[in-house]
Amino acid sequence: MAWQLRCRGPAGQATLSGLGGDTTVAALQALLADKTGVPAERQEVLSGFPPKPLPLSDGDATISSIGIANGDTLTVRQSAAAAAASPPPPPVAAPAPAPAPPAPVPAAAPVAAAAPGAAAATAAAVAGGDFEAYNGFDHMDEDAALAAAIAASMQDAGPAPSAAPPAAAAAAAAAPAAPAAAAHRAPPPPAARAPGPAPTAVALRDGSAVTRRIIASDNSCLFNAVGYVMEGTRSKAAELRRVIAAAVAGDPFTYNEGFLGQDNEAYCRWIQQPDKWGGAIELSILAVHYGREVAAYDIQTKRCDVYGQGNGYTERAMVIYDGLHYDALALSAFEGAPEHLDVTLLQIGSAQEAAASEGAARLVAACHDARQFTDVANFALRCGVCQIGLKGEKEAAEHAKATGHTRFSEY
């Protein structure tokens, strides 16, 4: 029987037919290149629960030998090494003000990521399309872990992205709405809309361009996206995790067990693990740490939520997410300009900042129209074991818990 696989790439979704367990890795990559537009030598292919990179070094190996099975969904990204041919020098930016003295994040800071242990909040966030805000599965209960694993398994391949927990409702009400707050999610686009290619840059009138800078999918994309826009490096994750842990440890009143979903000390240990994902709590802390606003653009809802707003900061940086993954946004000198010419820190209220914000909104709208986001609450799934049809991560999670089946594909 011929295999059928599903793939997601920068140009959207596609079905791969006529394959078999003895198909070679090289043949699969050639087909993926044709379907996604990502050359074989630049591909990073992910699969599984949660999605992990597949070994592609041996082109003669069979796809069954590397863990692919009939009905699987593959995520194809352009590798970070290919996206950046050389290590990026620091982006050009206006002189920054003197760093603000360390201070705990106020309770009214824009906070939206639910604590990793809160099952209901996790389900709301996944329904809203932002799974990455929930930082992994270790502290979730069984229901939440199943839902999160299924959502992650179906992640979109766009280069990538929280619901306000009940404990944080008062804080969230006093701040801009969280990026993925389920209550504010727009209805899903019509199912008939076909995915298409999305731009990675939008030109501005002066010839510059708002450009999406790809961050590796290594469980630290939020931290490295912030590191890029703030300091011009994609290798700040470990340091920024420590910064967040210190801020949380220094304010146990705000960051209590009800807010975090686990006790303060446990969270501080947990967030420093390299496989834990960041979300709105972490963005709000990093905005205070750098003394700059962070504008987070959500492709699914086309919202922009600004962390650190109202704190009197004079500069703003921008990031973008597709519901599962964060990338950096930069103002490049022109379309295709090298990264060392990037401007990532914008003077708030300046003509440059206004133009960049307008360009970012257009880029997000184009990505939205091309369906470059993951709506895990409404996609149609089929169980690869018993072939039953399911709608969204909630039904899939319930089915997985009841049957033990954990292989799903979209249809």
UniProtKB/TrEMBL annotation:
Residues of the OTU domain: 210-332
InterPro entries from the UniProt entry: OTU1_Ubl (IPR048857), OTU_dom (IPR003323), Papain-like_cys_pep_sf (IPR038765), Ubiquitin-like_dom (IPR000626), Ubiquitin-like_domsf (IPR029071), UIM_dom (IPR003903), Znf-C2H2_OTU1-like_C (IPR057766)
Localisation: Cytoplasm
Catalytic activity: Thiol-dependent hydrolysis of ester, thioester, amide, peptide and isopeptide bonds formed by the C-terminal Gly of ubiquitin (a 76-residue protein attached to proteins as an intracellular targeting signal)
CDD domains: OTU_plant_OTU1_2-like, Ubl_OTU1
Positions with biased composition (Pro residues): 86-107, 186-198
Protein name: Ubiquitin thioesterase OTU
Lineage of source species: Eukaryota, Viridiplantae, Chlorophyta, core chlorophytes, Chlorophyceae
